[in-house]
Amino acid sequence: MKILLTGGSGCGKSSYAEKLVMKFPLPRWYVATMRSYGAESEAKIARHRAMRSTKGFETIESQTDVGAIDLSQGGTVLLECLCNLTANEMFDDEGNERDPYEKILRDVRRLASQADNLILVTNDVGSDGEAYSDSTLRYVDTLGRLNRAFAAEFDTVYELVCGIPLLVKGEEV
Amino acid sequence: MILVIGARSSGKRAYVESLGYAPEEIADGVLDEKPVLYNLQDLTLPDPEGAGALYDRLLEKQVVVCDEVGSGVIPIDKGQRLGREATGRLCCRLAAQAEQVVRLVCGIPQVIKG
Fold it and tell me: Which pTM value belongs to this model?
């Protein structure tokens, strides 16, 4: 089963994602995509790690190239999150930009094909106007296109609002 | 407590008035004795670290109204980023305790809890 979770910042996507994963048997894999940029991201990473610590997750650090992950054991994968992965694939440390759309589609599909279940967390970044640089708007468009593509392919889509899951597509898990 | 959320100008205030609350019963971004607090985000966005401490007093309200501020591009400014996070997390906690959560979309109330 493939599930997409979307919503804004601080809406409870991570905790709901982990609740969903617990409905599936071991092994459970957490694919962590966040790059650490200092204390704030370290704190976020630590918070997510603490939430997972008692839940039997194996963590796989993969800030890019999630298609290269070997999941021959199968199991349930929580990939968090598509917004970081897209930024990591799109911009390098020198500020160079490339269009990562096809690569991310391929990579996530390959990961999904090895997993028994995939829960993909993304973010709603297109809802606050257009007062951004061209490069940021290209990022918003790319993530929006990826969200649409995965929502079309996946079984179930939820939007999280104040911690409440709203079913957008498919059946309740 | 009823939690009313939605985008800016989505019809939250009109909805609260339709529940029977008079304008003088609605506090705008101020924690006072009125039964309704409107614009919770005006308290949390400027002071993310203090947001969690509002929780107990907000539970005493009959209605709490907050803009959904977490959607859109993650701000580069750290204060804005933390403000959005803190507002969202506080709303998650309030929603968990609320008897009802109502989300306004284009003026249309959707009961998403209760």
Answer: 0.92
